[in-house]
Amino acid sequence: MNRRALLTSLAVAPLIAGCRRSAVASTPRGGLPPLRTITPGAFGTCVQVANLTDPAWLDLARTHVSQLTPEWEMKMEYILADGLDRLRLDRTDRIARFAADNGMALHGHTLIWYSQGQEAFAGLDNAAFDRAFDGYIATVAGHYRGKVQSWDVVNEPILDDGSGLRDCHWSRRYGQDGYIRRAFDEARIADPEAVLFLNEYNLEGVPAKGAQFLRLVERLLKAGCPLQGLGTQSHLWIDIPDGQIAAFMHELAQFGLPIHVSELDVSLRTDSALDLRGQQYRLSLQTARVTELAEVYMRLPAAQRFAFTTWGLRDTDSWYRRDDKDDGKDRPLPFDAAGQPNPMARALATAFQT
Ligand code: XIL
């Protein structure tokens, strides 16, 4: 069965409100309309508890954001820090309460990730491993049932070069497709209403990785996996060739599933220490990448425009500004340190209003 034929056989799960845009006419701030009012689906950002006591962040988020993704406190690294017997849900409870109090959807991130959980699951025999795997998903997804509208059930299953799927502690127990299918099955049991996503990065910039992802999606759907949404993280870089982003998104759309641009940022940094291009030129390339992505998102059928999430609001909120390569000048996000629109925000607003 080819991909198009697959479309007709898929019952796409009922979507969360097709469009969370406010019907209220909005007064442009700084010449920029609130992004949550013009973004089809939802406009999202990542969040951590520390943001919830930052008045400037709160003001920006309440103006522009209609969906939140916990940046790290809903991952095993935090939840399992005290072991499998003492799940820590305090911080994600605070985030969930903030989202509900502020009329924002909550996108759960992430239940099963190759890069976390090794320590907590180490040394378990097969029966205990199975109980812990299924129990973790049942407990976390069950706890947030009705509070989390969608989940990244599995994050980043593909090898960086696209040559295959990662081997990890999960695949060593259940097989590479097997752990993914088990995770989705358990998440479906734990929360019958949430929209269940598979999430991955560099799909636009590394065609081999994008192709491997599409093949995985096809296999999962043919196998009856309750996969209902596709997340492309879109941690883009400024030198992705013109047209490559749109070409991948077109392929991704063929499954007819909701698409989440789930973690957009575009660092101005490149790997070359000899790259002497100035910031304004790099910003023009960033604008071209963001425009291409947003325009192809706008061409999706409404039912497939799930949400458009940036991985932070202000440049200083970016994980890029926290790594040791940071030169303090990167501008990967829609707003500057003072909360004023960057070229990225204006490019998004232009594309979403076209
Ligand atoms: C990153 C966060 O931004 C960091 O704060 C954390 O230390 C590590 O994880 N892809 C993902 C995200 O799916 O969860 C990652 O977020 C960025 C890459």
Please, could you describe this protein's structure?
The chain is α/β, with parallel strands linked by helices. It has one domain: TIM Barrel, CATH 3.20.20.80. It is built from 13 helices and 9 strands. It has an 8-stranded parallel β-barrel, surrounded by 4 helices. Helix 11 links the parallel strand 7 and strand 8. Helix 10 runs parallel beside helix 11, helix 11 runs parallel beside helix 12 and helix 12 packs parallel to helix 13. It starts with a helix and ends with a helix. About 5% of the residues have low confidence. (3S,4R)-3-hydroxy-2-oxopiperidin-4-yl beta-D-xylopyranoside binds next to loops.
How many strands in all? Answer: 9
- Using the coordinates above, name the CATH class: Alpha Beta
Average pLDDT metric: 93
Number of domains: 1
Major sheet: order of its strands? 1-2-3-4-5-6-8-9
Low-confidence stretches: 10-25
> What is the molecular shape?
globular
Q: What would you say the CATH architecture is?
A: Alpha-Beta Barrel
Strand content: 5-15%
**Distinct small-molecule ligands in the complex:** (3S,4R)-3-hydroxy-2-oxopiperidin-4-yl beta-D-xylopyranoside
Helix content: 25-40%
Please outline the major beta sheet. Answer: 8 strands, parallel, barrel
H/E series, N to C? HHEHEHHEHHEHHEHEEHEHEH
Q: Count the helices. How many?
A: 13
Give the CATH H-level superfamily.
Answer: Glycosidases
Query: Looking at CATH, which topology would you report?
Result: TIM Barrel
Q: What gyration radius follows from the Cα positions, in whole Å?
A: 19 Å
The CA-CA distance between the termini, in Å, is 36 Å
Structural class: alpha/beta
